[in-house]
Amino acid sequence: MSVDLHGRTQRLEMSDQNLRAFEAVVLAATPEGIVLDRSAFYPGGGGQPADHGALVWQGVETRIVGARKGEDLCLIPAEGDPIPPAGTEVRAAVADERRSALMRTHSGLHVLCGVVFRDYGSLVTGGNMEPFSARMDFNLPEVPPGFKQTVEDACNAEIAAGRRIDVRVLPRAEAFALPDIIRTATNLVPEDAEQVRIVDIVGLDTQADGGTHVATTAQIGRIMVTKIESKGRGFRRLRIAISD
């Protein structure tokens, strides 16, 4: 299946991460979920939570508080809000402040991943994020002296370098021919995926990823490594905060 399609929905955010407003037609709708023919709402995945926003139709607003991926991509309406019936044309808006914060945070995690892999050879074993705060787990047996500050300084040097963040989609075989394309300890790319979306922080980090990102590292802001935790023998959790 194309990365730009989920069930019956064309995923607009995969090709235009800055798109915040669009028009669509409702294909199916219940209080549990609304399926559109096209959508720019990121539905969540890879540690990045789903977008919020709203649909406006016939003078009515339906707030969107999340999304669910299944056979179809379903937008989750706020409890008690009116539901547009199938066939309705809607104007949709993704909440910009939340999406922009998550884009900066997700790109910040890729900088962290790139620095730790480059300097310590450690793979990612897990991660999660909220706007401007995140965690990433690594298979890092030893924590060298000064590790926390060294990693923070290295991340911010990469941000200051203003590295370009490119996104492209490659056939599976071509994507997996790239060196170190999987930066997680377990390959999370579905076996039936014929195309793989690649996020490349040019000169630092190239990996398979389905989330949304800013255009350059300079747009991230500043990374602070707030805490390092032990998560069992040989595993470390790094918590970060993103600021202007």
Automatic annotation (TrEMBL):
Alanyl-transfer RNA synthetases family profile domain ranges (all copies): 1-244
Gene3D superfamilies (alphabetical): 2.40.30.130, Threonyl-trna Synthetase, Chain A, domain 2 (3.30.980.10)
InterPro entries, per the entry: Ala-tRNA-synth_IIc_core, Ala-tRNA-synth_IIc_N, Alanyl-tRNA_Editing_Enzymes, Thr/Ala-tRNA-synth_IIc_edit, Transl_B-barrel_sf, tRNA_SAD
Keywords for the protein's UniProt record, in alphabetical order: Metal-binding, Zinc
SUPFAM superfamilies membership: ThrRS/AlaRS common domain (SSF55186), Translation proteins (SSF50447)
Main location: cytoplasm
Native organism: Sphaerisporangium rhizosphaerae
Cell compartment(s), UniProt: Cytoplasm
Cofactor: Zn(2+)
Protein name, UniProt field: Alanyl-tRNA editing protein
Listed Pfam families: tRNA-synt_2c, tRNA_SAD
